[in-house]
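Notes taken during the Thursday session

The instructor put the following on the board and asked us to keep it in front of us for the whole hour. The protein is Flavodoxin. We were told not to look anything up and to reason only from what is written here. First, the residues (148 in total):
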Amino acid sequence: MNIKLVYASLTGNTEMLSDLMIEKFEEEKGLEIEKLFIEDMEDFDFLDDADAFIVATYTYGEGELPEEMEEFFEALADKDYEGKIYGVIGTGDTIYDEYCVSVDQFNEQIAKTGATNPTENLKIEIEADTDEDFENIDKFIESFASAL
Ligand SMILES: Cc1cc2nc3c(=O)[nH]c(=O)nc-3n(C[C@H](O)[C@H](O)[C@H](O)COP(=O)(O)O)c2cc1C
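Then, after some discussion, the predicted structure tokens were revealed:
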């Protein structure tokens, strides 16, 4: 099973969430996930051979995608990912009106590739620290792993 997680992170919150998810998938489900930093990617074929993938993003500006995610986002428009499982996670801050909207934007864009999302979008305010955060994380992991 080839599972990948691609993330963007400016100040480290989304990377921390990504690391937590990867650790929990391994510990709780025995699943290994390859972690990819969007800024290290030279082209946008890195998900083509994945059976399943997770996109992890923060939200910037006033509800904008991270700049380093924009080309990847556009490249998804030409992909046929039917048969793949995916989920979208991210961090944001509720002081902004457009809370975590990049997560929803990625979910909609990836849905057009034909891939299947068995999860609810996971949105974490800055870092996972409440009971609700950890319940949502567990739900995400259960739904994702059951669909594989
Ligand atoms: C200039 C600026 C604009 C932001 N705009 C939004 C926003 O529109 N919506 C949101 O939910 N969070 C917004 N945030 C909060 C970040 O998404 C949040 O701090 C996130 O955890 C950063 O992720 P990172 O540490 O992985 O870079 C903004 C932060 C900054 C500094």
